[in-house]
Each structure stands twice: as C-alpha cells, then as structure tokens.
Design a protein that fits this description.
mainly alpha
Length: 277
C-alpha cells in the first residue's frame, strides 16, 4: 500500500511538472515555428509544423524598421544600468554584510522591502523626477530608472554572497595591511563572483525585457528600446504575421540564450541567498 501511494505521488508530481513545462514552452515554440510559415499557413493551420525553413522574414526585419538601432539601444541601456548597479550595490551589500553600525538592519529592510512594491505605483514620482532632471526621452533617463529599480534584488543576493565569506579572511587581510577598498576589490569581490554573476544576469534580463518605463519615458525612435518598439512592429506587420513573429523571436531569443546557459548558477545562488547570512 505504501509503495502504491508513493508511486501515485511521483506520477502526479511528474504530470504536474510536465503540464507546467508545456504551458511555459508552448507559446515560445509556437512563435518560433510561426516565424517560418507563410501567412496562409498561419491562418489555415496555426499549430502545424512549417513546410519549409526560410530566413527571409528575419533578414527583412533586421534590414527594415530600425531594428538594429532599437537592439543597440536596448543593449546599451541594459548593459550600462546592469554594470552600474553591480558596482554601486556591491559596495552597499558588502558594508551591510561585513560591518556593524547603528541602523544596519533597518537600512537593509528598507532596501529590500521595495521588492514588495509594484513598479507601477512609482510612476508619478519617477516621471516627475525624470522631467525635473530634463532627462525625458533620453537613454540616460532610462539607465537611471533601471539602475534604481535593481537595488532590492542586488542587495538581497549580494549581501548573502558577501556574508558567506568567512570573516577570518577579512581579519587576515587587515593584519597584512590591506585597507578597506583593497580588501573589498581584491579579496571579497572575486570571492563573491557567483553572486555577482547571478545578479548581473537577472538585472540584464530584467532591463532587456522592460517595457513600461521605456514606453513612459521615451517618445522618439532614436531612444526606443526593442520591447517598446514591438508595439510599432505589431502595427507595421498587422497583416504580415510571418515578419511579426520573426521580430518577436529576435527580441526574446537573447534572453532565452543567456538564461539557458546560466540557469544552474542563477538557481543555486538564489537558493543560497535564502539560507546564508
């Protein structure tokens, strides 16, 4: 009886996991398959496999509609915001993890509690601040917004990464004459590279896929990012579903590739952040 119960539990578990995988992957696979079909095939048999493989829709998307410009904007904004976040918040997380000072726990709670605040609720103050700084419709404005938006996640993951480093190593560095910055840059930062890599990947993917503030804070094509430009692709390709799905595939593909090659490290670091420190 016990064996039968255990078999039933494992079977049910695998059924649920298979269902979740199908629900998550099917829309992505359908978009990719549809990008190789003709309009007629998409309308007549949307769930069938493509009869031929042609990259002509991808070539036309890349050569028209400023796709390369939008991609470069997304890459630049996401990269600068991610690198800036890592440099700034790594120092803050290091100080909170390794030093005792009045109000340390309160500061950490205030930093991380913003993860519980929906991003849309900060629309008015962010918009007013960007306008006051004369950064509306600029790449710099989006970079600042993305940089500040990653504070909670960076502090949460990096604090745990630094806290996992034995304090005896800091004491040994101090005895050898290393100062604060030398200890941080040459010892603790390399040892926390797993947490840094995980934070950087999550930050980059979030910045790359962000749509709301990109649509709110930019208006000209020269500063438009790919997720925001997707709305214009839908209008331009309203009756050309093949190219529309090709554009969708090109937008989501970089994020998928990055996560596929780094998922194990991301999952291990996120799990460890909940049990260390």
């Amino acid at each position: 009886m016990e064996k039968l119960k255990k078999t039933f539990m494992y079977t049910w578990m695998y059924v649920v996991m298979a269902f979740v995988v199908i629900v998550c992957l099917f829309p992505l696979l359908w978009v990719v398959m549809s990008s190789f079909k003709t309009n007629g095939e998409i309308l007549s048999s949307p769930f069938s496999l493509p009869t031929a493989i042609s990259f002509e829709p991808y070539i036309r998307v890349l050569s028209t509609n400023n796709f390369a410009l939008y991609g470069l904007n997304s890459l630049m904004i996401a990269t600068v915001a991610t690198v800036g976040s890592l440099l700034i918040y790594a120092m803050g997380a290091y100080a909170i993890a390794k030093f005792n000072f009045p109000g340390k726990n309160l500061l950490y709670v205030l930093f991380t509690i913003t993860m519980l605040v929906p991003g849309h609720t900060k629309t008015q103050p962010i918009f007013s601040l960007v306008m006051a700084l004369n950064l509306y419709d600029t790449k710099q404005g989006l970079m600042l917004v993305y940089l500040s938006g990653g504070m909670a996640m960076c502090m949460f993951v990096l604090r745990s990464a630094f806290a996992a480093i034995p304090k005896e190593m800091s004491e040994a560095a101090t005895i050898d004459g290393a100062g604060f910055f030398r200890t941080f840059w040459q010892m603790h930062l390399p040892l926390a590279k797993s947490g840094m890599a995980t934070t950087g990947i999550l930050m980059f993917l979030g910045n790359w896929n962000e749509y709301y503030f990109a649509a709110l804070l930019t208006s000209s094509a020269k500063n438009r990012t790919l997720p925001y430009a997707l709305a214009f692709f839908n209008e331009a390709f309203a009756y050309d579903y093949t190219r529309m799905f090709a554009a969708l595939t090109l937008i989501i593909l970089p994020g998928l590739i990055i996560y596929v090659f780094s998922q194990e490290q991301v999952q291990m670091s996120v799990v460890s952040s909940g049990v260390k420190g």
